[in-house]
Amino acid sequence: MTTGQLRDLENQPHQLKRLVELSVVLNSTLDLDALLQLITATATELLDCEAASILLCDENDVCLFFAAATGSDPEKLAEISVPIESSLAGTILRSNQPIILNNVEQDPRHYSLVSDQIKFKVKALLGVPMPIKDRTVGVLEALNKRDGAFNEHDASLLSVTAAHAAIAINNARLLRATQKALEQVSEANQIKSNFLALASHELRTPLNIIMGYSTILNEDTSGELSSHAMEVLNAARQMRSILDEMNNLSMLKSDEMIFKPQKVPMEDLLVYTCDEMKYMAYARDQELVYAFSEGSHPVNVDLDKTALAFGNLLDNAIRFSPQGSRITVGVTRDANQVLAWVQDQGIGIPADKLHKIFEEFYQIEPPNTRHYGGLGIGLTIAKGLIEAQEGRIWAESDGAGKGSTFKVLFPMA
Question: Domain residues for 10?
């Protein structure tokens, strides 16, 4: 047994310990930059060499770039690309096999441009592929063994390190990609919220002018002209209702809505809301029916905003129910909570859509074959207003054509 082999044998317990420690840290760290520095530092220590570096494939697999290296300026390294076709690192990547070169300068594949730019002379090199599943994502290199020459034992040790490193780097990259995607989604949501707020604000001025002049025309004229003015006024009121919904949604999403809770009987709140909606129901020959259990059912809520939430539930029931149908509004006690509901005999909700109907702009109907109006945000607003006051809302339905029931639960005051 040679001196080098004896030295490798003596070092094995320490090396195995360091590999275990590296594996633990790699599996618990998702900071890509910290991982890269840890891997190169550990490789340098394990193989007792002057430096180590990690080269990863670029997005198009056209070349390799330095992701990290011990003792080098990361910004300078990042500017250097290494060709896959005519370099040692590229050969390791393409062949998926380790390379041991204890006299690098005699190998024509040595990419000396890197050494020249970072002022580091490479005399000996051990490079191994970094595999992840069925793909090689990069190369881990150890440079200039301090004592003796790189051997097969070193190659095995570095290969184990590279395998652990590849998995950790892939996980960290996936996390970065996920975070970036979430940031983009968040930015898109912010743009959408800003647009809703801006549109609802800017459209109010011309809409108020239209409503003002149509009101004057309706009052000062008669006959057909007055009828036309009333149609304009009704359309403007409908548009203002849509703008109010847009504004409420943007305020909810920005947490700008202020709630002023007060103790109020739930049945009084529901009667108040039904009074606001009864003309809309009567226009469709629909009957509003109360189903209140005995006694008072007080809750601590903002009266106007909770009425708005139930108003949206009633509006939903009226629009999606046939003419001449019945809409039931009820309240009862449920242990130490108050349960209220709005039940209709309308088009119903498929079981797989019961949760989706509360999502922004979601509508069961396809947009190009719609029979019912609305932006699809009334239920979203209702859910936001109720949950902001420690309430809970959900929908129940036996399926298409079998009506729906929207239930709301509040703590009893």
Answer: 3-179
Measured CA distances, 266 to 45, 90, 328, 333, 342 (Å) = 71, 73, 15, 10, 13
Give CA–CA dist 177/199, Å, rounded. 33
Does residue 395 lie in a domain region?
yes
- The helix/strand/coil state of 13 is helix
The DSSP element (H or E) to which 287 belongs, if any, is strand 287-292
Is 328 a domain residue? yes
Residue 287 lies in a domain: yes
- CATH code at position 298: 3.30.565.10
| Rounded Cα gap, residues 347 and 294, in angstroms | 31
Instruction: Provide the 8-state DSSP code for 391.
Output: -
- Give yes or no: residues 35 and 174 share one domain: yes
Domain count across the chain: 3
In the chain (413 residues long), the average pLDDT of successive 10-residue segments reads: 49 60 63 81 87 84 81 69 85 91 83 68 89 86 89 88 82 80 76 68 74 79 79 74 67 74 94 88 90 92 91 89 92 93 91 82 53 66 90 90 92 90
Rounded-to-integer distance, Cα 303 and Cα 36, Å: 57
Q: Is the pTM of this model over 0.85?
A: no
Own/partner pairs, 356-360, CB within 8 angstroms, 24+ separation: 357/395, 358/383, 358/393, 358/395, 360/249
Cβ atoms 55, 138 nearer than 8 A: yes
DSSP character at residue 269: H
* DSSP 8-state secondary structure symbol assigned to residue 105: G
Q: Distance between CA atoms of 358 and 399, rounded to whole angstroms?
A: 17
Are residue 143 and residue 72 in the same domain, yes or no?
yes
Q: What is the CATH number of the domain that holds 138?
A: 3.30.450.40
Q: Please check whether residue 62 is in contact with residue 85, taking contact to mean a CB–CB distance below 8 angstroms.
A: no
